[in-house]
Design a protein that fits this description.
two-stranded antiparallel sheet, globular, flavoprotein (chains A, B), EC 1.3.99.41 (chains A, B), homodimer, alpha+beta, 11 strands, 3-methylmercaptopropionyl-CoA dehydrogenase (chains A, B)
Chain lengths: ~600, ~600
């Protein structure tokens, strides 16, 4: 059976040595209630829950075929309900939610690490509370006081759950063409009619009510994305006293059969004149939904870290135990029929790629978490402005770059197992199948890249990247000399030139940005990871224990063996868009 | 449902325009019986069979759970038996086998293209005849006349099938430590005892007998790989008159539950004193098995092409049909709610990556096929020597590089579908699951890379690569100027320097080769593909029709957008092995 032990020591290192969480919390009166001991206690509790409760349910849910649909109802895999009750009773649903509504008020810097453990051990399970938390954020941000009072406390006890209903059969990335209608009633409510697909947790048996956040168009709404409003549509209508009333006209029509995350119910939801309540202003629904979307997007990045960490631990253990061949430098274990495959450079290369990805990704998630905490808790307006810009820039990196690298990492981890990696019982192939969706949902990674290069880069003429690099340069310049320092400064120079090129070319050629977006996203991802290694290096170099000194080797490994990808990405960007756009449309499907 | 149409026009272009198959065949008396019309007729027949018979069985086999095991027997998925009978009756099992034994005697240049269609439409199905063909080659190469007469004709009628039994629970890559024993009997036969795992088609219901080729150790055999012999172990013993006799003591203990190729039965085979017959000389079994292995390894590369072509066709059709957003240059289809996603550069980038991979891969397979045909049919000793060296060099490229690039290609094709790519009914996720094994089985791609950099490069001080590059330079120098010509010459220069570095470093550091092997494999792969584009360019540039002119654009695309990977690979190789090897073994599993 697959193993997992939460990397608590690494998490503590990132949180406390690299990002000095304690100082940060103590310096902010809204966070000063939190200290390192409490934070570590929370992580230790989640380490137990993830290992002891949900890890085994991950394989059994997949093997049993996952969530089951029957006559409009969804049965979650065996054990999910008990595990969810335990999770909810532990207060985990509202770990990062406002205390005012029953949450624990923990900062994002900390919750990203707790989330990682759940993503490592049971991604299907994670999706049930995840959407609830996102829906709660959108309601908290946009809804009326009465709506908040009605829904939020029930979310954080785990009694009710939330969903996000955007996609329709003909409308995914392009939400401007949704067809779902909202017809106003005399009482201020609306009748919602339409079909939504790919609705995670649209129907399930873990909670007594499900609160759908639905995008729909009111009569005479403007065409396109400026005519979309946001509605709360509960599965069961809620009485004035908060008890459950009659069943609303919304139901799951079926669930999808998917590559992975089989324990998660991905539903087709039919709204047949279901009663809905507008959230925020008419026609401003998309902005409200993006509060939720941006949260989910960072979460997808953490899904990547979780999978990659799980894959690493299992592959490293397998490689240690598996005996094949002998070391090139001579027999290492003469008492055994063969040496551990860890003696082979190619096996180490794969494991180090995975590990280098994990440590940088985790640091990056905590860094973005800290930026989010600044936007939420800081009272310094300029700091908040900077952090908002930073989060805007880095959300697509967190979502897309962390999941792109994680998929490659899990594939390399699987390869360490040889043929056994292809056999279900080892859990590696499920890890890859479960992770693959993270590159696709919440806006495909291509769409993230277009967001990065467009709204976050060319639109501000590269200002967000420039401010990010000013921070990276300042940090690096203050380091004593090292390979990582030189690499960070060198990458800044290259990214500066590339960004200038991108900004210029996008003005000359409307097709340019879209065609080079993914390469540019990877460039900013590499910049981010080398920055994380600069920070890791700086925190580790002052400590003599092997745990810290090995981090310096890993940082050098990253610079020597992963960062070279930058050269290829840059060449592709400089090659431009013309060769991509010049072939006629029918070239692609003409009989070859 | 997924679509597939064999790319007959592209195949004809590669075979006849690029590699001038007709001239090649006519110049060789052993092949002069074959002409273009016959070759094209064969490909057209296979195009029909693959599309009309096995394509639909691919999805249904996966959905039904694949091959089923019960009390030692394996039931293949519904429809496989009828399809296999049709396949066998069409003479397809022996398409490339010697006419002397009932085969069709077709050259490899042609059979690689027929094989591609089967890999595209039903990889699980393909594996049943594939192992038979491989076993037939080993028997033809190494066995006695009597053994050939007994087994080969039955293989090519499809009455009997073959397997390759190497791996044991503790012994995969390292075959020197196998435990299966062969005890001699007085009649010259042996009793074979041991357990073999991962045996493709080890048990099934398509044929009346199964002939296992088994590696085992005779008493007092030398330790390691020099003490391994090869045995024929039939499921049913064969009487002197060729009829089936009693059941032998070999049986499937179970079948594996796998990530993909679920229609293929991957068996645990238990040999309990089963009667076996030695093939070739004692202790020379590994060399005999490598006849079969090398054949399978090229086949795995073709599995990659097949999957990537299937993925391309489906993704291009989906992208054409899917309407989301508008072109950056203005509305393209005002009559529709949105433009086809083919207007977006990022979607085109993905499709062009896949297509660029397919056309180079296919050309490469035909090129390697031609080299194999030279080794088999040419009477010019120097030509045969050169072709043998070329095949030795390029077999790991065919196996590993073509499957590495194919996996990336199928992932990109899946991404074109957005969320729908994750849903089983579209067939894309199965394509990826089915393909993934090609990087793992028949020697993992890491092992292929070590073979390339070791036996095929450092061992001969780079002579094989040098001779290959002499051919590439000669060809390129004879081309009129173009980007592809310049790129090919430029890559040769870089690979020359890299190979020299690799040869030198491997003498200084025994760990060097293993640690950089995969990067070096990709370097030689990129060299090979740019050479293929030089040849494609040269064949296409003289023809005015768009079909040919578009190939020039694709060649330029390859140079501008895919070839840059070389820069990253080279940097990694120059970074060496030290950072990979310096961490202690317990670093990898120490609690983090």
């Amino acid at each position: 059976m697959p193993i997992y032990n939460a990397p608590l020591k690494d998490m503590d290192f990132i949180l406390n040595d690299v990002f000095k969480a304690d100082e940060f919390w103590q310096a902010n009166e809204n966070l000063a209630h939190l200290d390192v001991a409490t934070a570590n206690a929370i992580l230790e509790e989640m380490a137990k829950f993830s290992k002891n409760v949900i890890l085994d349910l991950n394989r059994s849910a997949d093997e049993s075929g996952g969530a089951q649909f029957n006559l409009g109802e969804v049965k979650t895999p065996e054990g999910f309900k008990e595990a969810f009750n335990q999770f909810a009773q532990g207060g985990w649903v509202g770990l990062g939610a406002p205390e005012e509504w029953g949450g624990q008020g923990m900062p994002k810097m900390l919750t990203v690490l707790a989330d990682e453990m759940i993503w490592s051990t049971n991604p299907s399970f994670m999706l049930y509370p995840l959407l609830t938390v996102g829906a709660g954020m959108a309601i908290n941000d946009r809804a009326s006081q009465e709506q908040k009072e009605t829904y939020l406390p029930k979310f954080y006890t785990g009694e009710w759950s939330g969903t996000m209903c955007l996609t329709e059969p003909h409308s995914g990335t392009d939400l401007g063409i949704i067809k779902t209608k909202a017809e106003p009633n005399d009482d201020g409510s609306y009748n919602i009619t339409g079909t939504k697909i790919f609705i995670t947790s649209g129907e399930h048996d873990l909670c007594e009510n499900i609160i759908h956040l639905v995008l729909a168009k009111t009569p005479n709404a403007p065409a396109g994305s400026r005519g979309i409003s946001l509605f709360i549509v509960p599965k069961f209508l809620v009485n004035a006293d908060g008890t459950l009333g009659e069943r609303n006209a919304v139901a799951a029509g079926s669930i999808e059969h998917k590559m992975g995350i089989k324990g998660s119910a991905t539903c087709v939801m039919n709204f047949d004149g279901a009663k809905g309540y507008m959230v925020g202003n008419e026609n401003e629904g998309l902005a409200g939904m993006f509060v939720m979307m941006n949260y989910e997007r960072l979460s997808m990045g953490i899904q990547g870290i979780g999978a990659s960490e799980y894959a690493y631990q299992n592959a490293a253990q397998y490689a240690t135990d598996r005996l094949q061949g002998r070391a090139a430098t001579g027999v290492q274990s003469p008492e055994k029929p063969a040496d551990s495959i860890l003696v082979h450079g190619d096996v180490r290369r794969m494991l180090l790629n995975v590990r280098a990805n994990n440590e940088a990704s985790r640091a990056f998630a905590v860094y973005v978490g800290q930026q989010l905490d600044i936007t939420k808790y800081s009272t310094d307006a300029e700091a908040v402005r900077k952090a908002n810009d930073r989060v805007a820039l880095l959300t697509p990196i967190a979502k897309a770059y962390l999941t792109d690298t994680a998929l490659q990492a899990t594939l390399e981890a699987q390869m360490c197992f040889g043929g056994h990696g292809y056999i279900r019982e080892w859990g590696m192939e499920q890890c890859i199948r479960d992770l693959r969706i993270a590159q696709i949902y919440e806006g495909t990674n291509g769409v993230q890249a277009i967001d990065l290069i467009g709204r976050k880069t060319t639109k501000c003429s590269g200002a967000f990247v420039a401010e990010y690099m000013a921070e990276i340069r300042e940090f690096s310049n203050n380091m004593p000399d090292s390979k990582v320092k030189q690499a960070a400064l060198n990458v800044c120079e290259k990214v500066e030139a590339l960004t200038q090129f991108v900004v210029e070319q996008s003005k000359l050629n409307p097709n340019f940005s879209n065609a080079v977006a993914v390469d540019y996203l990877h460039v900013v991802g590499l910049l981010s990871f080398v920055y994380m290694y600069a920070r890791i290096h700086e925190a580790a170099r002052v400590k003599a224990e092997p745990f810290y000194q090995h981090k310096l080797v890993l940082a050098d490994y990253y610079v020597a063996k992963v960062l070279p990808d930058l050269a290829a990405r840059a060449e592709r960007i400089y090659a431009g868009a013309d060769l991509i756009m010049q072939l006629p449309q029918d070239y692609f499907t003409a009989q070859a």
